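Quick one: co-fold with adenosine monophosphate.
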Amino acid sequence: MPDRPATVRTIADLRAAILPWRARGDSVALVPTMGALHAGHVALIDRARTEARRTVVSIFVNPIQFGDARDLETYPRDEAADRAMLTAAGADLLFAPDAGEVYPRGFATRVAVDGLSRGLCGDARPGHFEGVATVVAKLFNMVRPDCAVFGEKDYQQLLVIRRLAADLDTAVRVIGHPTVREDDGLAMSSRNRRLSPDERRVAPRLYSELAGAAAAIAAGAPARAALDAARAALVAAGFGPIDYLELRDGETLACPVAPGRPARIFAAAHLGVTRLIDNVRVR
Ligand code: AMP
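Sure, here it is.
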C-alpha cells in the first residue's frame, strides 16, 4: 500500500498533520469527496494543487445527506483504489474519518442554507442539502483550509456551499471546477458504476438532450418548448422518472430567469436504479 498520501482518521491526527504546514506558512486546499474516485475528482485535486501549496482530500460517505438507507448502503466504496488514485494525483493528506468521529454521540447541530437549498435536488431529496451543508461546515472547521474545490457537476450544491462559506464567515475561498465528462458526454459520477451496459449506452443522452435544449434556447427558441422536447426525448430513450428538468438563473436559481441573466438547465433523471444529475450553461 502506498504511504503517500498519509491517511488520518481522527480530527486530532488531521490537525497534527496540518500544524507543521501552517507553521511553515504553507497554504492549504481541501477537496471534499465521498470516495469511489474518478477523473472528475482528480481534476478537482489538480485544481487544488494549483491553488494552494498543500492539498487535503477527505473521503467520507456522509450518512446525514442520504434520505434513502438503501442508497447509503449501496454507495460504492473502494478505499484501496482511491488511495492509489490519490497517490497518482499527488494529494498530500487523506482524511477518512468514520461516522462516529464526525457525528459523536449527542451530536445535535444542523446547518441549513435557506433559499438555494429549495427546489431541484432540494425538493427531490428532502434534507439532502442540510446534510451536505452540515458536513461541509464541519470539514471547514476541522481543516481550516484557505480554499476548497467543488465540482459544477453538483451545481446547486456549489451555490449552497458558496452561500454557507460567506454567511458563516469561514474565510474559505470556494472554487467551482467545470464538470469532467466521459468521451461520449456522460458526466463522470461514482454512481455511474451502477449502470448496466445497456443503461450505460443510454446515459449520455441526458447530457446531449440538455446541451441540445441549451443551444436551442440560446438561439432564441422558447424555453418551454425546448425543455418539453428534451423531456420527451429522455422518456423515449428509457429514462424515468424525471425528477426535474428546468431552466434557472445560474447564480440565484430563480425561475423564471430574467432577461440578460446567466441561465442554466438543470436535470435529474432515473435510469434503472441509478439517479443521474447534470446541468449545462445556456448563457
Ligand atoms: P462526490 O464524491 O460525488 O460527493 O463528489 C465530490 C466532489 O467532486 C464534489 O464537489 C463534486 O461536485 C465533484 N465531482 C463529482 N463528479 C464530478 C465531475 N464529473 N466533474 C467535476 N467534479 C465532479
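If it helps, Residues 228 and 245 are 9 Å apart (CA to CA).
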